[in-house]
Amino acid sequence: MKIVLLGGPGAGKGTQAQRLVAEFGVAHISTGDLLRAAVKAGTPLGKQAKSYMDKGQLVPDSLVVDLVKERLQEEDAQRGFILDGFPRNTAQAVTLDSELNTMGIKLDAAILIDVHPDVIVKRLSSRRTCKKCGYTGGADMEVCPRCSGEMYQRDDDKPETIQHRLAVYQSQTAPLVEHYKGHRILKTVNGEQSQDKVYQDIKDLLNL
Ligand code: ADP
Ligand code: ZN
User: Fold this and answer.
1) 156 CA closest ligand 1 atom index
2) Which residue has the CA at smallest separation from atom 19 of ligand 1?
3) Most buried among 10, 52, 106, 148, using CB within 10 Å?
4) Which atom of ligand 1 approaches the CA of 52 most closely?
5) 2-115+173-205 architecture in CATH?
6) Mean pLDDT of all residues in the chain?
7) Does residue 123 carry a catalytic annotation?
8) Model pLDDT, residue 75
9) pLDDT for 84-132, tens place per residue?
10) pLDDT computed for residue 81 by the predictor
């Protein structure tokens, strides 16, 4: 399994990726998670990335691309991978194409988890994330059901930032749908169904 997950913020990419990882043992390559880990660890990269992330802007490509390239070399990624949150603009998609080409790897699919912007705004404003493991749930969740970590509201899940992230998605990331249609590997699932149904649809699309 070598796939890219596409979809707006809060479409469910992270949730679906975690399920695929648990069932198939492939690598979950989430640039959002990698960047948040760098911020938390206070690395030079994290320090540079933080101001962009807090504002809901994209972090410069140069910072993100190397993270992904390194992650693709790791051992678990040799069994397959799910790219979540990358690529996020056309330049990143073109870089990824050439990197995979060099590695002799072909993507099986780019899966768009399709969710209407109004639904996204509602979901993100009530989203809480586990500080320890990244699990996401609703506003009523104070303790992570998976690891008992503390659930918090990400800075970029605050209302003023959500609108901006959506705009960034529409202008920069949505065009990738056409990019992967051109490569004939785009597949779309309806992301406004239950998590279980979305998961089943994804597996069906991948013939799993
Ligand atoms: P979401 O998909 O819910 O917006 P992510 O966790 O994927 O959240 O990303 C959070 C933030 O991290 C983004 O708003 C952006 O600032 C940064 N980021 C993540 N992936 C990328 C990427 N591929 N390129 C540039 N910035 C990124
Ligand atoms: Zn947790």
Assistant:
1) 14
2) 32
3) 10
4) 16
5) 3-Layer(aba) Sandwich (3.40)
6) 95
7) no
8) 93
9) 999 999 999 999 999 999 999 999 999 999 999 999 999 999 999 999 9
10) 98
Q: Find the radius of gyration of the CA atoms of the chain.
A: 16
If one residue of 54, 127, 156 were mutated to test the ligand 1 pocket, choosing by the most ligand atoms within 8 A of its CB, it would be: 156
Residue 28 has a pLDDT of: 96
**Helix residue ranges, H only, the chain:** 13-24, 31-41, 44-55, 61-73, 90-103, 117-125, 159-168, 176-182, 195-205
Q: 159 to each of 3, 35, 126, 150, how far by Cα in Å?
A: 31, 21, 10, 21
Q: Is the CB of 52 under 6 A from ligand 1?
A: yes
The domain limits of the chain are 2-115+173-205
Active-site option among 50, 71, 127, 128? 127
Residue 203 among the catalytic residues: no
User: What's the CA gap between 8 and 116, in Å, rounded?
Assistant: 9
Q: Is the pLDDT of residue 12 over 90?
A: yes
